[in-house]
Amino acid sequence: MYGTVKTPPAIKPTTGRAAAMTDDEYAAWREEQTTGALSVLGYAAGTAFHLAANPHLIDVFRLYAAQFSHYNLRNKLRLFGQDPRATRVQGDKWWLREGRQVVEGAAPLWVDALYTGKRTKEVTDKRTGETEQVEAQYRAVVPQQVYDITQTVPVPDTKGRGCMVCTTPAGEPCPPYCGIYLSERGRIPSRMQVLLEIFDVLKEYGGVDVEGTLAQLGPDAYEEGDQVDGTTLELIKVTMSNGRKTTRRVHVTGPDDKGRIRYAVLKVGVFWISLDELAYDQNRRGTSVRVQYGDDPEPGDEHRWAMNHGEKARPYAPVINGVTLAGYGVANADEADDPGFWVSVGRPGRYGTGRVPDKTEKAARQIVAQLVKLWRERPDLDKVRAAHDRFHAPHRLANHEHEAEKMRALAEEYGAKLLDAQEKAAAQRALLAAEKAAEDDENAAAAV
Ligand SMILES: [Zn+2]
User: Fold this and answer.
1) Given CB 3.0 to 4.6 Å as the disulfide criterion, which of 7, 112, 176, 392 pairs with 34?
2) How far apart are the CA of 88 and the centre of ligand 1, in A?
3) pTM for the predicted model, two decimal places
């Protein structure tokens, strides 16, 4: 085996978390931990050997590793050895907060994790000789089971809805195209970092020729600081109906081909933010954004018109204080930090959106202000703008061409009118000139 395997002792300790277990529980836990400890050691070494022997796979591993910004390189080596197709890996409790549940019989992956626990210690006072029970904190690196997103299914949210990305009902696995499988945006480690890690894992076996391998690999397609694209996870504050503030996770994806960004606020709903297309050609442009409440309806949806006009809520429309939002709002992105930030908030109404209670309106504006701020601070805002402009270019071109056609017709009409006026003016000018010439002739004749 590679390195030392730290496993729980054969005899159940009387301190730490083992103390609270029955003998059977402890035996089962010990066996699981031993498997885990062997796995974390074996998979790191196995992957390190494999990459050292096949250096062309190092760049493949770098892209893989970039997806898991919350793990260190050692754990990334372990994951690569266990599931090279994994995209999002987390513990079961993390997945629950994400609105997903690890399925029964799921295949676990092993990583090392920091465990913080409490244990009671006996401390003897040297002067008095009295012993005292003292509770002490301890930290240990222990093997932990984690799961790839493919091993999870959505759990119902407050409205009983399932997956917030593909709308698969709770309890059913998402289809392969669901965006929940999209990895998170993350930084690509350098070849040097990976090789040094491999060296460290294999140091008892002679390490790896770092310089030689680097020279063998040739030019690097990725520069320092390059990232893999993907979802980003953000946090925002949400005011609940009882006035209490809580934190909500936000999955940010996009831009899509229209230059829009999707914000899925967990347990609330979906918001789309884009540049306001009506602000085209005006000086408001660039700061005026459109906030859509909920996802686009399916292309053939018979309620499409009603959803776009706020008479019906869109799929995954935000639910705030029990009120479902509909339609869309327009906001000024430059005012996202102002306490007076404004965006229209409505619920499904009879002819367009209807009013929502003041409390809901206030809570919704707080959420939108934070999302608009996230939008405004995107490093790729130029790309977002370019995608928006590209999407709107065909109909804007058609509008301008239509306008030009109208102007051409007007120009022709006015050209003809101009010519007519000029001809008439010329005729009158000629008439006056002829009259003046006759008069001059008469005067000349009289003078002789
Ligand atoms: Zn899904």
Assistant:
1) 7
2) 13
3) 0.72
